[in-house]
């Protein structure tokens, strides 16, 4: 770990001006700093900022402060009742100890678990642009099958962000100059392309202040995470689904996927293909065909293609049971 | 010193009479309160409050190379850096358990991220930062990092934990002539022992005398390794390991930390603390070698085994003779007139392979116990019945009698308790919603060994005893059972017996490894106690045999004399030593057991969950029911890992161990572990030791993974011969239709 300057932000407008790397729970950033994968000169501790509330918004949704911990968020009665999907996704992630420290903002911005990203002696375009990608042709069991580039095939590891994407959440931020903006989670993340080191639309010094949820979305909420052990493992494939049926037809379908790509994946064409149709295995297969049309394995992760298909179909079958 | 050589079976002992009533009881751990209250210092936690310096290891990010130069200028000039230690003496990995030799690097890089130097600084943080500033120039060499492409090139070595080859008759001929031939190949990956406490050392010099606290299992060997590593006489080194946070074989030989800490402390003239990081532990201590095992079994047309072949190929680094002894149980567990058990070591430029959690049984029985299941299936027989039909009456290799072998009792008892009769008789036949349900079983066996070991008992004038031996307690319960043995033998309440362990200034012991610790160290305490009783008898003018000892009193005829009276103000010190003898060569000794598993495999995803796990075992006298049972739980849990999760991944291009932390190297977590059942049958093995007990630690790990694999087969009809059985291997065997409805 390199020495760094430390500053504590005492109010929200000041945070961006302190011109350093924000640290919240530190559960990801500190690990990376110890290995010198990340080497910030300065840390700005944001944990004293008043961003720990979950409040109701005018349109009947919720605004979740960026520092609300994953544990608190998952346990909030409003989340459990109206956004079951989010609560389930959070509880499927990490471990109890980690969720107690991990924050909403930090979770969105956690970095990939690609083993080569963590090993500074290996080529990695995300860590050191232009150095190459050791995961291609290497150990890539956990890597992407959608939206990867020849420069990076990493996945985004978050469970929470997948649920947020299915829910159509909006990220509220404040830029370094004090101005604020909002970015839909749909637009928040980037594919690796030629710049895998840039993972989101955030600018330097831009602070996430909150994540806003729309008013509750009716339907069956499901979060299914497929992983190598029963707990404390990242998703190989995850499916976040909100499905509402009406008169034997699918009236609404919102689907997001984890473990498949550099970002929580959402494909509106998949949802469109389902809406207005009567649920059937043939229909679900068609949805999977659309989702996976461009899917490409890297060798060790080839199994994710059939796995994603099977998991999607099972989730849809479950969510439309009795329709 | 009172010495007992195990030349013949032991008769009835004070332990059998159980007068004090403490032997065998599941009493709480002697050091339990210290551990849970943070008062049991582990290696790194010594010298609190003293002015010390901190070390951090510099590692070589290259698979195979020669070191051209080391430039420590930048690191040295960082404020707070005291020195950078480098040179030929640096150990590139942990030492092997079988000799005092140490793996000095001598200018060579033999595996990716091996230690090359040590930075010593005023703080851990400064040392860590400086380590990245040490510039090492390498001359890259060609490396080779996997065994598949080198099959058939292995070496037969003589430095392994068993002979490379064990043969009888003419296997090839017998197999060719067998009515039924079974021939399958199984693969197990490389593993990391993954003890909770990382390898760590604190070294302190006093003139030319070194005191070192290090997390080690075999102190009397390890102290020689440390002395060799730094080039001093072993008499100049005192090694202490009072508490150890797990070893699992990875601390049988010293880690690279011990020698580095000692060299660093010498260089800076103050004590040095060095804990390996988790990444170092994965990449620079030792690992279990991956194996490719060909199992060939010939049988008669009704399933009687006539010949047995088990040929293993495994990996180790250049010049390393240790091999994963996958055939260790095969030699005596299975019948067959003609036999062939071989081991070959394929050279790779990857971290040294060494002992890890039941070397041999853990990997070998993953293969052989699956093979038996496959064979049973081929004959349409229940796996239990198949094993019963193939139970040898004597050791099939040497024709020796078994000292005691209650494998079938364990299988019967297990089958009854597990309700084995309820097993789906056809694979892929039972389903609950989205889950495919299956049962599987396997045998367990673990060769027993008694090692030379000694202990001292000191009795104070008040009649309190202190047991002293250089033995270690690696979390297994050694403190507790030694206390129980001394208390039972001497007729003392438990709280009148203290135990001092983990210090080479104490009588030399077997150390902890190979599940021999409890019986070897325990027997030395037994022998010392006999000497003390002899002394009591002498003082009382009676025959020792006539003395009954209970609650600090000697009872002889109608006299009842408090110990204090016998001692009459004296402190008595007696030493006892146990040595293996003829019973080790004229009987075949092993612990036996059986595992029963129920699994649920998700029909959509191939995720496997173990639902029930039962182990029934026999290991002679159980010294403490609680700690013995805990040992078995540990074995069962590791078995879940072997079956479903554990795999150390080596990148064949560079030699990098890619998953080098506990987030990416998966061992079972609580949610993977169902309610575990362990039943230890009442048993005595009078040939094994004066305690009539045998090793238990590694028994429960042997075969569990195969029981789970066999259950997966029963659930799905998929026979996977490459561990771990992750979902990607099962997916193509699952029903096409997904979800509950299917
Ligand atoms: C062993 C392990 C297992 C895990 N398993 C899972 C899992 O299964 N599923 C899962 O989803 N996650 C998992 N996690 C990841 C965990 O959820 C994240 O580490 C955590 O959510 C990060 O939150 P934090 O507050 O600690 O972030 P930090 O580490 O503090 O920060 C992470 C990043 O976010 C930035 N940041 C933080 N807050 C803000 C803000 N308000 N505005 C702008 N930038 C900000 C930081 O600068 C940094 O770059 C696991 C982590 C570990 C260590
Ligand atoms: S996949 Fe991305 S993160 Fe991993 S090595 Fe390649 S560039 Fe780096």
Protein model, in words:
The complex is a heterodimer of chains A (323) and B (742). Chain A is an alpha+beta fold. Chain A contains twelve helices and eleven strands. In chain A, the strands form three sheets. Chain A has a five-stranded antiparallel beta sheet. Chain A has a three-stranded parallel beta sheet with strand order 1-3-2, with no helix packed on it. Chain B has a seven-stranded mixed beta sheet with strand order 4-6-2-13-10-11-12. In chain B, strands 1-25-19-20-21 form a five-stranded mixed beta sheet. Chain B is globular. Chain B is of the alpha+beta class and 742 residues long. Among the domains of chain B are: 2-40 and 451-540 and 548-563, Aldehyde Oxidoreductase, domain 4 (2-Layer Sandwich); 43-142 and 216-274, Aldehyde oxidase/xanthine dehydrogenase, a/b hammerhead (Aldehyde Oxidoreductase, domain 3, Alpha-Beta Complex), CATH 3.90.1170; 399-449 and 586-731, Aldehyde oxidase/xanthine dehydrogenase, molybdopterin binding domain (Aldehyde Oxidoreductase, domain 4, 2-Layer Sandwich). In chain B, β20, α13 and β21 form a beta-alpha-beta unit. In chain B, α10 packs across α11 and α10 runs parallel beside α18 (704-716). The mean pLDDT of chain B is 97. The longest helix of chain B is centred in the last third of the chain and has 24 residues, at 517-540. The chains are: A alpha+beta (323), B alpha+beta (742). Iron/sulfur cluster (SF4) is lined by residues 112, 114, 116-117, 124-126, 133-135, 152-154, 196 of chain A.
């Amino acid at each position: 770990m390199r020495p760094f300057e430390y500053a504590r932000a005492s109010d929200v407008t000041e945070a961006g001006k302190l011109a350093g790397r924000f640290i919240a729970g530190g559960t990801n950033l500190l690990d990376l700093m110890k290995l010198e994968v990340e080497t910030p000169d300065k840390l700005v501790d944001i944990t004293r900022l008043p961003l720990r509330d979950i409040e109701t918004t005018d349109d009947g949704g919720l605004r979740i402060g960026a520092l609300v911990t994953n544990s608190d968020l998952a346990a909030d009665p409003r989340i459990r009742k109206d956004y079951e999907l989010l609560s389930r996704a959070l509880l499927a992630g990490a471990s109890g100890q980690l969720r107690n420290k991990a924050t909403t903002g930090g979770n969105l911005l956690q970095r990939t678990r690609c083993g080569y990203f963590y090993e500074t002696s290996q080529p990695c375009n995300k860590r050191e642009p232009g150095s190459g990608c050791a995961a291609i042709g290497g150990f890539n069991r956990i890597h992407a099958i959608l939206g990867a580039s020849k420069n990076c095939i990493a996945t985004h590891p978050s469970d929470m962000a997948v649920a947020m994407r299915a829910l159509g959440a909006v990220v509220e931020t404040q830029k370094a100059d004090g101005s604020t903006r909002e970015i839909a989670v749909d637009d928040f993340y980037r594919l690796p392309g030629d710049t895998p080191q840039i993972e989101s639309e955030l600018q330097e010094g831009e602070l996430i202040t909150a994540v806003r949820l729309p008013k509750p979305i009716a339907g069956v909420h499901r979060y299914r995470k497929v992983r190598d052990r029963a707990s404390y493992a990242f998703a190989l494939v995850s499916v976040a689904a909100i499905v509402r049926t009406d008169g034997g037809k699918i009236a609404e379908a919102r689907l997001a996927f984890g473990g498949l790509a550099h970002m929580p994946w959402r494909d509106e064409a998949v949802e469109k293909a389902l809406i207005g149709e009567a649920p059937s295995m043939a229909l679900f297969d068609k949805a999977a065909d659309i989702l996976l049309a461009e899917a490409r394995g890297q060798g060790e992760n080839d199994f994710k293609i059939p796995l994603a298909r099977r998991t999607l179909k099972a989730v849809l079958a479950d969510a439309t049971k009795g329709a | 010193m009172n010495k007992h050589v195990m030349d013949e079976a032991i008769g009835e002992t004070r332990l059998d009479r159980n007068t004090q009533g403490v032997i065998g009881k599941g009493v709480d751990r002697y050091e339990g309160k210290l551990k849970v209250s943070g008062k049991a210092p582990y290696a790194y936690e010594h010298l609190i409050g003293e002015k010390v310096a901190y070390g951090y290891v510099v590692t070589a990010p290259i698979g195979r190379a020669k070191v051209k130069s080391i430039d420590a200028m930048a690191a040295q000039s960082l404020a707070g850096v005291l020195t950078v230690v480098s040179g030929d003496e640096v150990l590139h990995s942990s030492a092997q358990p079988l000799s005092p030799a140490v793996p000095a690097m001598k200018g060579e890089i033999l595996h990716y991220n091996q230690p090359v130097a040590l930075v010593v600084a005023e703080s851990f943080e400064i040392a860590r930062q400086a380590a990245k500033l040490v510039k090492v120039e390498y001359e890259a060499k060609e490396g080779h990092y996997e065994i598949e492409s080198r099959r058939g090139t292995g070496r037969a070595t003589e430095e392994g934990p068993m002979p490379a080859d064990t043969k009888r008759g003419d296997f090839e001929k017998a197999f060719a002539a067998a009515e039924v031939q079974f021939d399958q190949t199984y693969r197990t990956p490389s593993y990391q022992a993954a003890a909770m406490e990382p390898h760590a050392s604190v070294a302190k010099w006093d003139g030319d005398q070194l005191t070192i606290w290090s997390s080690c299992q075999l102190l009397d060997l390890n102290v020689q390794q440390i002395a060799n590593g730094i080039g001093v006489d072993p008499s100049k080194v005192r090694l202490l390991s009072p508490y150890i946070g797990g070893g699992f074989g990875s601390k049988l030989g010293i880690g690279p930390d011990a020698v580095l800490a000692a060299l660093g402390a010498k260089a800076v003239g103050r004590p040095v603390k060095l804990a390996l990081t988790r990444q170092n532990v994965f990449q620079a201590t030792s690992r279990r070698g991956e194996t490719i095992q060909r199992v060939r079994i010939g049988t008669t047309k009704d399933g009687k085994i006539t010949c047995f072949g088990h040929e293993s190929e495994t990996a180790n680094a250049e010049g390393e003779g240790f091999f994963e002894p996958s055939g260790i149980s095969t030699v005596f567990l299975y019948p067959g007139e003609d036999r062939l058990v071989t081991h070959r070591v394929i050279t790779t430029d990857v971290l040294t392979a060494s002992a890890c959690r039941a070397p041999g049984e853990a990997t070998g029985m993953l293969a052989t116990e699956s093979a038996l299941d496959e064979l049973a299936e081929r004959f349409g027989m229940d796996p239990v019945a198949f094993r019963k039909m193939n139970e040898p009456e004597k050791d099939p290799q040497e024709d020796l009698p078994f000292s005691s072998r209650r494998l079938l009792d364990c299988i019967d008892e297990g089958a009854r308790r597990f309700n084995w009769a309820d097993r789906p008789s056809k694979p892929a036949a039972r389903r609950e919603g989205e889950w495919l349900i299956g049962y599987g079983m396997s045998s367990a066996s673990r060769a027993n060994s008694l090692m030379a070991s000694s202990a001292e008992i000191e009795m104070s004038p008040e009649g309190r005893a202190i047991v002293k031996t250089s033995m270690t307690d690696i979390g297994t319960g050694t403190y507790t059972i030694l206390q129980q043995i001394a208390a039972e033998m001497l007729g003392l309440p438990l709280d009148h017996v203290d135990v001092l362990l983990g210090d080479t200034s104490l009588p030399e012991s077997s150390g902890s490894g190979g599940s021999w610790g409890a019986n070897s160290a325990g027997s030395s305490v037994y022998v010392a106690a006999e000497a003390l009783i002899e002394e009591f008898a002498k003082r009382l003018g009676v025959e020792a045999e006539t003395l009954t000892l209970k609650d600090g009193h000697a009872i002889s005829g109608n006299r009842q004399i408090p110990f204090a009276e016998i001692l009459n103000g004296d402190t008595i010190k007696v030493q006892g030593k146990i040595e293996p003898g003829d019973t080790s060569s004229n009987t075949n000794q092993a612990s036996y057991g059986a595992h029963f598993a129920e699994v649920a495999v998700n029909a959509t995803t191939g995720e496997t969950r173990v639902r029930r796990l039962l182990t029934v075992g026999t290991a002679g006298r159980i010294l403490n029911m609680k700690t013995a049972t805990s040992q078995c739980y540990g074995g069962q849990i590791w078995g879940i890992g072997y079956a479903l999760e554990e795999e150390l991944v080596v990148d064949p291009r560079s030699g990098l161990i890619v998953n080098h932390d506990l987030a990416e190297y998966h061992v079972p977590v609580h949610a993977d572990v169902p309610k575990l059942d362990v039943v230890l049958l009442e048993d005595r093995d009078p040939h094994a030791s004066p305690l009539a007990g045998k090793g238990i630690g590694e028994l429960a790990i042997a075969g569990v993974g195969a029981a789970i694999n066999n259950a997966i087969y029963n659930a799905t009809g998929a026979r996977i011969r490459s561990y771990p059985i992750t979902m990607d291997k099962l997916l193509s065997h699952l029903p096409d239709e997904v979800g509950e409805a299917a």
